[in-house]
Amino acid sequence: MQNTKEQQATKLKKIFKPLYPKIHQQLKRKWFQYIVLFFIVGSISSIIYSSFEEAKPYRAQLFLFNYISSFVFTIEYVLRLIAAPMQYPQLGLIKARLKYMFSFYGIIDFVAILPFVVIYFFQDSPHLHLVVLAYILIIFKLIRYSRSFRLIGEVLHEVHEELVTAYTACGIMLGFSGILMYYIERNAQPEAFSNIGDGFWWAIVAFTTVGYGDIYPITPLGRLLSSLISLIGIAMIAIPTGIISSAFMNMMLDKRKKQENKE
Asked: Which tens digit of pLDDT belongs to each residue from 182-238?
């Protein structure tokens, strides 16, 4: 019995293994990408349009389009799951599929099919709208089909260590100033600075120089601290901006050099 099962398993592998590269190639075809891109953009547009009062008579049609889009995304997810061994050739069949399932794109692809699966099985659930809300995450599916998004992702990956260092310094400064401002202002305006969380909110607003005006210091020492934090914030925010812009320029120059060398 065991031998027959093993023979059947090997036969199935021989039958389906040649399909992996074919499916993988089709997933890279422009016609397939354009179809998926059409449903991504259409779904995002229908979600935006359905929030307007003018779209009330057409909400059933918009919902139907989103449902069809989820079905298309389900087919795409299954095909990518089958062809995952071609994407990760160094891994086995099961490990390659698990790698795809728990990757960034795999999670986004899975979220995109949730409405189709959940609505089909739990049509009468009172909490169904919470699952449909997750459908807005399909906007991240555009990253796979957009060169600009991919370029930004490559730049961020290139300088992620420098960005972590810069944002860690910003976080330390925010924590220090938020706690200090709370203890400076809590007696003068206990309603505005009722806890340290309010101090953190003020620190973020002051640090980014947004200035909503909902929380601000009124004591002389608090105003002095607020002025210093705003000035420091301008300098600190410029650090990650400079890191990203310089990495972006370096990548563009490298691409131009490679093109010139090819020519």
From this structure: 999 888 888 888 888 888 998 888 888 787 878 888 898 888 988 888 888 888 888
153-188 pLDDT, tens digit each: 788 888 888 888 888 888 888 888 889 999 998 888
Q: In sequence order, what DSSP letters do the residues of the chain get, joined into one string?
A: -HHHHHHHHHHHHHHHTTHHHHHHHHHHSHHHHHHHHHHHHHHHHHHHHHTSGGGGGGHHHHHHHHHHHHHHHHHHHHHHHHTHHHHSTTS-HHHHHHHHHTSHHHHHHHHHHHHHHHHHH-TT-TTHHHHHHGGGGGGGGHHHH-HHHHHHHHHHHHTHHHHHHHHHHHHHHHHHHHHHHHHHHTTT-TTTTSSHHHHHHHHHHHHTT---SSS---SHHHHHHHHHHHHHHHHHHHHHHHHHHHHHHHHHHHHHHHHHHH-
Question: What is the set of domains in the chain, with CATH numbers?
Answer: 2-145 (1.20.120), 160-262 (1.10.287.70)
Question: Scanning the structure block, which residue is given the tokens 């009330």?
Answer: 56
Q: Distances from the Cα of 223 to the Cαs of 178, 185, 204, 237, in angstroms?
A: 13, 10, 15, 21
| Helices 59-82 + 93-101 axis angle, to 10 | 150
**C-alpha closest to that of 84 among 33, 138, 16:** 16
